[in-house]
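Lecture notes, unit on protein representations.

Consider one protein chain, 191 amino acids long.
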Amino acid sequence: MARRRFTPRRVKKQEDPINENIKAPEIRLVGENLEEISKVIGTQILSGVYPTKAARQWAEEMGLDLVLISEKAIPPVCKIVDYNKFLYLQKKKQKEIKSKSAKTVIKEIRFGPNTDDHDFDFKLKHAKGFLSDGAKVKVFVHFKGRTIVFKDRGELLLLRFIKELEDYGTAESLPKMEGKRMIVMISPKKK
């Protein structure tokens, strides 16, 4: 029976910018842990330019990795850290940035050209809620078959809708025809 290999840590690939894969003769060493490394090695290490071979040796003595941070800088910038921890922190930062970025939500509201007042008020109430929550609202009048002759009714309906939502949002443009639909986008007002 074949044995399964268990590798709890990420296996370092050959192309990863660490240790022996750093080909530059000199590197700029940066990091918060340089004082700790200085104490263990017995040599004063400050942020600055060092031979790659020496930096790699210091990292090895500490049981850490020499990791390339910025390849395009002259000389390339490196840190002495645990590579797996470095990857973990990098992914964590990316998730944090992604979660902080604003996500634009677009809600759609559909009308017919012969929409009644009750339906109009019902959809208006929903649009107010969407705009209050910070979502954009895409409002359109869909023309089926022969209702295309009522374009003016559709435009009046959308203009009335925009007028009713003045306190909650602003129209990005006037209603315009796209195929069998007359569309207008409404953005929420900044708080």
